[in-house]
Design goal:
The structure is a single chain. This protein has about 270 residues and is of the alpha/beta class. Helices cover about 40% and strands about 20% of the residues. The structure holds 2'-monophosphoadenosine-5'-diphosphate. 2'-monophosphoadenosine-5'-diphosphate (ATR) binds next to helix 6.
Length: about 270
């Protein structure tokens, strides 16, 4: 019988996770069933309890807006999930225990390692945004790079978050005075067609600009970075596949191939 997994979110219709996990299963020869599951925004814990009572689910990925609620239902959590304050990967144990992990930060770092030509441990990173996505990255990123600066539209949130993780903070305005090799957009600005109000010189002086969002065409942030002259601009599809690979490995104890699955997703259909 196939091992059963879900990705839970609201909305969930456009999630690529089932396609990614199906490709991993095919390439590793494992028999898994991985599907989307729409949860009502109210009562995540109750809906999860009923799901587990009715089906032998092995694990679940959790996406917007449930990553904090997922954290609450865990009986044990990884250190990186504790730091992120959010869980995107649940493992359901036979004794009823629930283990929670957060693979977003390591997925992002693994993608950066592939994309960044220089030595990542020497790179300075400007992280735009101070919400849940930024927090997920901060659980892992600071130990992998030389320095991180958080900048956010609401300045106080940048300073609070930076203090919690022992990194630097800046307003979006003051970022014009700094130089970072890597600039990461962890804001939700692209969703509304906007770009964080950063001086284009910041993009021009960087080596790599990365938007956690992904889309068939360049996001507004990617367009702004490209127009400013940044030589390497990427969307977050690589991170999506990398975080999925970490979840897959946790559940199935096999490392799936990332490169070939990512290449297939990027290929025009
Ligand atoms: P997520 O879980 O995706 O991180 P969030 O917690 O709601 O979502 O955080 C959204 C982040 O995007 C915030 O840092 C927000 O800035 P504020 O703290 O000032 O609200 C940022 N953001 C959203 N729209 C933005 C825009 N147009 N320009 C700059 N930052 C924006």
């Amino acid at each position: 019988m196939s091992r059963l997994f879900y990705v839970i979110g609201n909305p969930i219709e456009h999630s690529l996770s089932p396609v990614i996990h199906a490709a991993f299963a095919q390439k590793t020869g494992l028999d898994i069933f991985y599907e989307k599951r729409l949860f009502d925004v109210k009562d995540f814990a109750g809906q999860l309890r009923r799901l587990l009572a009715s089906e032998p689910v092995c694990g679940a990925n959790v996406t917007v807006p449930f990553k904090r609620e997922a954290y609450q239902v865990c009986t044990t959590i990884s250190e990186r999930a504790r730091l992120a304050g959010a869980v995107n990967t649940l493992s359901f144990q036979k004794d009823g225990g629930v283990f929670g992990d957060n693979t977003d930060g390591i997925g992002f770092v693994n993608d950066l390692k592939r994309l960044y030509g220089g030595k990542l441990s020497e790179a300075r990173v400007l992280l735009l945004g101070a919400g849940g996505a930024a927090r997920g990255l901060l659980a892992v990123l600071p130990t992998c790079v030389r320095a991180v600066t958080v900048a956010n539209r609401t300045e106080a949130k940048a300073f609070d978050l930076a203090a919690a993780f022992g990194v630097c903070a800046s307003s979006l305005e003051d970022a014009k005075n700094g130089t970072w090799e890597i600039v990461v957009n962890a804001t939700s600005a692209s969703l509304s067609g906007a770009v964080p109000a950063v001086d284009p010189g910041v993009f021009a002086r960087s080596q790599l600009c990365y938007d956690l969002m992904y889309a068939r065409t360049a996001t507004p942030f990617m367009q702004a970075a490209q127009s400013a002259g940044c030589p390497n601009v990427y969307d977050g599809l690589g991170m999506l596949v990398e975080q999925a690979a970490e979840s897959f490995q946790l559940w199935n104890e096999i490392r799936p191939p990332v490169e070939s699955v990512l290449a297939a997703l990027r290929a025009p259909h």
